[in-house]
Amino acid sequence: MSIFSWLFAKNTEKNSMVRKWILQEIKKVDIENPDVYVLFLGLIQTAVSWGKHDIKGQDDQMLEVSKQYLGDATIFEIAAYTYYRVEIWLDKEQPELAKQIALPIREWIAEKFHTVLYVDERLFNQLFEEQLIRYKSLTGAGKTLTDLHLELEQRILLTRGDRFNKQSLSKDSASAALESQYIKKSLVKYEEINIPEVIANIQQYCEKQSKIKLEERKSKGQQLMENHEQRDYLYGMALVAQNDWVRACNAFTKVLAANPKHYDALIQRGLLYSTLHQYVDALEDFTVAIEVNPNESAAYIHRGKCYHRNLRVKDKSLADYSEAIRLAPNLAAGYFGRGELYDEIALHKEKQALEKHDHLTYGHLSEEFLAAIHDYSQVIALEPEYDAAYANRALLYARKARAHQHIDDITNAIADFEKAMSLNWEHGYLYKQQDEMKELLEESQLEKEA
């Protein structure tokens, strides 16, 4: 008796090595997140279940017949047939994924059967290939599903003894008819229940893979687009560093053509428009940037400056500076911009008072004056080396010192002038005003002593 004859003669569920193996393997996989190996296990598990289906009206005699077809040889035949049906479906419905799914399953079927049964893999591959060719030839000849089942029935009947000895078919016509009846009914039920289940699982897997591939393509496309955007943006920044305003503006425009919501490109182009005196365009870019990211302070600060310094719209400028401060209370830029705005408003009121010889109003500490002092002080608290804040606050104190010669304002102005000049030599122009304050301090002290 050959090795195949010996193995397949033990054709009972109890002795089925494939059944034991599938029970072990099925516990190891993640059914909720299937891969191709899970599909293979599902296919084999389906083949394993073929001989265990109860047939309506099955009597003891039929039950005894069914026990003869619960072993590895029958499972192999059913697995080969099921694989053929899967391969045909894949070629028709999912040609892009056919090789990705079918080829590994085909290799695993031969590998696992020869491993479990300790039989030469080359021979198993040959057996499997012969089965597929047999089914394909029937399909190619225009045969129906009934013809395929007839072929499969003959193959299953051969598994009762020596798989390759056709003489192993039952010689008892009554027994042969009973076995044929059992196999036919089992195949009908298998076709109605198991084959659709296998196809449905593979279809679900294909849909998931197609979705993943689509998302990957989108991700790659998005990444490529972002890479191009980043390249063009960095090129624009390099041109800014070279003071090539027009070409830099064109680079940022290219970024925004691909991605109109690119926040940094909107900010940079808006700043360039301001430099090029295109203030309306700058305002539009800053406004779009705020719409893109309303919780980021930078666009509010830059739009506030545009309203303040270029368009002279003080109320909108004040609103933008204040919103920037609310969003980023630990950043000095918002306080400095608003401080300059309050400073200008206070200076304008003081000039009007001087023109009207209204010395009382000129010397009055207006709300804007106090607000400007507060904002410059906030800048200094956040950034103690911010020289412009010291210079601007010194000039504020100096104006009030000239108006009413309060010693506190004079000393504050002198200290801030000194600090500003020590931090940045470009504030050297303040020496004259510092000397003026020192002279004013001496005069005030003499008057106080007198």
Automatic annotation (TrEMBL):
PROSITE patterns: TPR. InterPro entries: TPR-like_helical_dom_sf, TPR_rpt, Ycf3. The keyword tRNA processing does not apply. Keywords: Repeat, TPR repeat. It comes from the Bacteria. The keyword Repeat applies. TPR repeats lie at residues 263-296. This is Tetratricopeptide repeat-containing protein. It comes from Pelosinus propionicus DSM 13327.
